[in-house]
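USER:
Working in pairs, take the chain set out below, taking as long as you need, and write a paragraph about the fold.
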Amino acid sequence: MCRLCSEQNWPPLTEKLVILATSGSISIYRVPDIIREIRRKGGDVKVGMSESSAEMISPELIKWASSNAPVTKITGFIEHISLFTEPRDKILLICPLTYDTAGKMASGISDNIPSLFFSFAFGHGVPVLAAPAMHLDMYRNKFMQENIKRLMDSGVEFIEPEEDPEKAKLSEKENIVDHVIRSFYHSTMGGKRVLIISGRTEDRIDPARTVSNRSSGFTGYWLARNSFRLGSSDVTFVGNSPYPMPEYVRSDFCVETASFYSKVEAILRKEKFDLIIIPAAISDFSISFSEKKLDSDREHEIHLRPRKKLLDIIRKNSSAKLVAFRLSESPDDAMRHFSESVPDMIVHNSILEEPFGNGGAKYSVISGEKITEISGASKEEVTFRLLLHIMGSLFALGKTNKQ
């Protein structure tokens, strides 16, 4: 692995401290799961609970989830200061954030634990995340929106709630955790705009049948999430995935090969990207289509005709750095395949191993004359490391953990 890849801790929140402050929303029942997920990503979690939130859920449950006794009152240990002066990377996550606590934070009032934690953390330069949860009419109230704007203009990052006809519900656990990871790594991709083209393709033989491939779409899914985690300002996804994309990803679903071509061309006519990554298993052939369903009682010939490469179309319409995946027997095969389009980086995935699904992966990453091996125990890890390598090799990134 390269230096950036090999020096990166995994899970990504290893040695990071997340100070979580809870206020009195019924959504607090979801907080133990959020704490456990942050810990699964390697983070240490210390919790401060408002009086009302400690009445809604037992501090003992929070202690179990975090393995740390929660702060339920400020003592002579001045917990609202001592927690934030530990010598390690840290953030403050206020989750759930209520109408009342938001108003206090925006007005400089600090008479409960979340607002008190905020008053010191924000002044001390600790990044602050807030995840609101309340009745939808309260969330849309103009005073609440003014308070949100005031806090955002000052540097607080908000994790938008999910709206239904009556509620502004706490965002999904995975979305909150991705924002937490982003708080520590946001400078890595430095606001780069990323287009990811991923998934399987299908070509119709007749109205009922298609020719497809075994691509799972897991790689593109994790490239999208990890691009956001590492600080991309815009993540656009074209293709298909077994998992629904998070709300922060602009997703354009397609399966048919022709749709991949038309959608990518349309996007590139309107928008510019810094980086385009193509793990999609796009068919190299076009297939003759029968308007009538083929008779299953006799043999048929299917003619495969070489198709113009999508990579060549992208090269013609975009100046973005281009990273192309290739499933083949060896890195040499991959380099020969891209001899005309010449992507900035080739990621070789061996067809001799099991390349599909969300298990571990090992990539041979080709940049110029150099081949770097990148591996991970899961697609989540290997794509995280791959993005670090891309930033270091193609964008001359020096440090990964600078806040």
User: Anything to note?
Assistant: The chain has two domains: 3-185, 193-394. The chain has 15 helices and 20 strands. The chain has a mean pLDDT of 92. Residues 81 and 120 are 7 Å apart (CA to CA).
